[in-house]
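dude i think i finally got it to work??
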Amino acid sequence: MSQDRDPAPADGSLTTSRDGTVLRLTLDRSARRNSLTHPMIEAFVEALTDAATDDSLRVIHIGGAGDDFCAGADWVATNDSGQPRPRTGDLVRRIPHAAHRVIELIHTIHLPVVCSVRGFAVGLGCNLALAADFTVAATDAVFWEPFVTRGFSPDSGASWLLPRLVGMTRAKRMLLLGEKVAATDAADWGLIHRAVNSADLENTTGQLLTRLAAGPTVALGLAKQALHYGQHVTLAQSMTQELFNLELSCRTADFKEGLAAFRERRPPEFRGR
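look at this
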């Protein structure tokens, strides 16, 4: 069972809990479709940064409270805060250490990241789901990048993630036309891992988390790193990186256990070490 989870304050929060070796991060602002405030984004960065160096963790789950996953960054709250207008260049200075940093951490952390989506995943919320290693969505969920329909250009990795996941033509449909994508189409496109009935979402996600948590954590992290590295280098460079990763993974206890299990014709019992 999950432990150490505090109730969300009235204006929402990112709540964290531990379930064995699983870190659960929950966007907890259902009254606003879990749209992210500055404090929630800061908490996200802190939680992921801490998780990156926590050897007791083996997988991360990101979900949303209530009927929706995330309606993106709360621009209304930001612009109605009553604070003086920020000086020119505020977004350029601040966002790399906030929303963009969250996407980078999800993308680069060596722990596998699983996201479960109900309802709407919009803007930054959509990109959180796309940056995860595996996203499972209810069949009635919707993925939407509405940036241009609101008069500003995409951010939080949308222009990098989408073409790599679904190709340039579909990326343009989502980013330039602002088309909404149903979860079933998202799964068919390769935008997400799976679309399942809403009643099956928790169980399907749980099975995936259990499988990843039981895997060779170091090797999984190195494989994730190699996949991302290979997206912007030559084949020769990618294979060189694979060799360095192989050298590291072959020195783990899980590698020895994998060989022993193969010799003994039994399932391996990886410890994440």
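The mean pLDDT is 90.
im so relieved honestly
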